């Protein structure tokens, strides 16, 4: 099948690789323009851009697809179908109508739950027991199209957004190849809009840890914001990020450091306690609790978050 592919982050690379491995013809790859990244803010190509370059695929990086002149390369590629995976740009109606078999999207949730930009993080924050991927037909609405195929997986108690993203990327790539192979016979299933929830883009302010919340909620926050933007707190006014934690025994005023050692920094929450296992000072690297304490000892009884 002749497939135009649109995607940007590593999540989408698995799908592009799977398309090529399955023998589909990919005449054009769309991805977002290079963006400044790193401390030097050097222009950096997307993960999909690098993948396309490795395979010698034609690459197109429009800042928008709203103007007719920006849509020309897609039309000229004459796709049977267009596949979208975490592309990050809106496809206008004119683009959605170009492929003969339509446009399909790999969405990282079990629609209609978690339509929108951050379904993986929102599922972890909400304590969902499972998530998955949907292969859906695209419409002008935000993730409103009918579902062609879905695959589900449980969310394990220690899953982070990073690990779950990798799992769902592989699951989505497998589901995509399956769906394309059966595209003519799959029956589109309309979504029940009354059950829809919205996965808003993560705001950095959400990463600030509120120690008055339960240990369960703070743990979800730490896992959902690993790797971006990182759950954040303060100690004596200095910013710290906590990348990994485990439930712990203890109680006290929320935010109190109950004890510390190589096994973790035990911090009281509104209900229960957590042992922070991996911590990062601003401008420094991530460290396990033991290494962190060797360079930055903390006194029991002190308060995080002030």
Automatic annotation (TrEMBL):
Q: What is this protein called?
A: Methionyl-tRNA formyltransferase
Q: Which organism is it from?
A: Usitatibacter rugosus
Against NCBIfam families, the record matches this protein to: fmt
Q: Which GO terms describe its cellular component?
A: cytosol
Task: Provide the alphabetized UniProt keywords.
Answer: Protein biosynthesis, Transferase
Top-level taxon of the source organism: Bacteria
So what EC number does this one have?
A: 2.1.2.9
Q: Which HAMAP family has this protein been placed in?
A: Formyl_trans (MF_00182)
Q: Name the gene behind this protein.
A: fmt_1
């Amino acid at each position: 099948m002749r497939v135009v592919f649109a995607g940007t982050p590593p999540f989408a690379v698995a799908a592009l690789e799977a398309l090529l491995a399955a023998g589909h013809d990919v005449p054009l790859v769309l991805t977002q323009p290079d963006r400044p990244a790193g401390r030097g803010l050097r222009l950096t190509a997307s993960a999909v851009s690098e993948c396309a370059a490795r395979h010698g695929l034609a690459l197109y990086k429009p800042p928008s697809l709203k103007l007719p002149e920006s849509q020309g390369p897609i039309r000229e590629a004459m796709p049977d179908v267009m596949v979208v995976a975490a592309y990050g740009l809106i496809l206008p109606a004119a683009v959605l109508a170009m492929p003969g078999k339509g446009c399909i999207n790999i969405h990282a949730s079990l629609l209609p739950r978690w339509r929108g930009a951050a379904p993986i993080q929102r599922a972890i924050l909400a304590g969902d027991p499972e998530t998955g991927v949907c292969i859906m037909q695209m419409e002008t609405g935000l993730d409103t199209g009918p579902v062609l195929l879905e695959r589900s997986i449980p969310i394990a108690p220690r899953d982070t957004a990073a690990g779950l993203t990798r799992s769902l990327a592989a699951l989505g790539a497998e589901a995509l190849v399956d769906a394309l192979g059966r595209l003519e016979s799959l029956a589109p299933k309309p979504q029940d809009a009354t059950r829809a929830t919205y996965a808003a883009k993560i705001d950095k302010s959400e990463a600030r840890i509120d120690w008055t919340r339960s240990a369960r909620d703070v743990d979800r926050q730490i896992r959902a914001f690993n790797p971006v933007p990182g759950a954040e707190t303060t100690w004596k006014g200095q910013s710290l990020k906590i990348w990994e934690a485990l439930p712990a025994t203890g109680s006290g005023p929320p935010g109190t450091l109950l004890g510390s050692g190589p096994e973790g920094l035990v911090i009281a929450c509104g209900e229960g306690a957590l042992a922070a296992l991996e911590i990062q000072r601003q401008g420094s690297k991530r460290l396990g609790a033991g290494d962190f304490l060797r360079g930055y000892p903390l006194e029991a009884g002190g308060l995080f978050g002030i």
